[in-house]
Amino acid sequence: MEEEFPYPVKRTKVAPWNDKLFKVDDLSKKLDDEKKAILRRFVMKTMFLLVADDFQTLTWYIDSAFAVHADMKSHTGSAFTLGKGAICSDSTKQKINTQSSTESELVGVDDKIAKVIWTKKFIECQGFKVKLNIVYQDNQSTLKLSNNGKESSGKRTRHFDIKYFYVTDLISRDEVKVIYCPADDMVADYMSKPLVGYKFKKFRDFIMNLKG
Predict the structure, then answer these.
(1) How far is Cα 86 from Cα 204, in angstroms, rounded to an integer?
(2) Cα distances (angstroms) measured from residue 203 to each of 12, 156, 191
(3) Does the N terminus or the C terminus of the chain have fewer Cβ atoms within 10 A?
(4) Contacts for 108-111 with beta carbons within 8 Å, 24 or more apart?
C-alpha cells in the first residue's frame, strides 16, 4: 500500500521531546489504594463535567419501530443524556415478535430498563444525588401501561406478559419516571429507523452535541 503514495513514506518519525513524553519516574512512590480511589473519583467527575449540564436529572429516550425486520420483529433505539449530547446510545433488534406498536414499545422499554436503573445507581455512587430519572416515550398507550400496569390493560393488551410491567413497579418506587415526548422530539428515532432531512440533522446534532 505504501507504494501507492505519490511521495516516499518514512517508516519512523521522531517527535520533539520523545524521550520525555509519558515518561514515568521509576523512583516515584506508588499510589496506595486510598489515593487510587480518590484519583479515580476525580477523573470520573471530570469526565462527567465535560458532557453534563445537570447531574440531578437523567434523561432517556426510548423508541421502537414496529415489525421492520424480515421476520417481522421490531427494533428498539435508545439515547441517554445529561444535557449535552448522548453519553450512550444503542440500536438493537427485539428478540420476540409483538402484535402491535404498543406492545413493541413496551418490550423496548423493558429491554432498556436495566441500563436505565444501572446508570442511576452508577452516578449516585460517584457522589451525585439524582432527583429525576426520566424515560421519554412517544406512545400514549405504552405510557399508560407503563404507569398503571394491568389497570390500563384492555382486550387488545390482556395477553402482554406480566414481566413487561416491571417498569410499573419501578415507577411506584420512584426509581424512574415515564413521561410523554412528542414524536418530533423523540431522539431515539435516530436509533430505531432511517431518518432524512430536518429530523436527521436535528437528532444528529443533539446526539453529537453539535451546534447547528
Answers:
(1) 10
(2) 42, 33, 10
(3) N
(4) 108/62, 108/63, 108/64, 108/74, 108/76, 108/78, 109/62, 109/135, 109/137, 109/142, 109/146, 109/164, 109/167, 109/178, 110/163, 110/164, 110/166, 110/167, 111/76
Q: Are 73 and 67 in contact (CB under 8 A)?
A: yes
pLDDT at 25: 66
Mean pLDDT of residues grouped by 10 in the chain (212 residues)?
A: 53 52 65 79 63 72 92 93 84 91 89 90 82 90 79 62 77 91 92 90 88 63
Q: Is 143 left (phi over 0), alpha (psi -120 to 50) or beta?
A: alpha
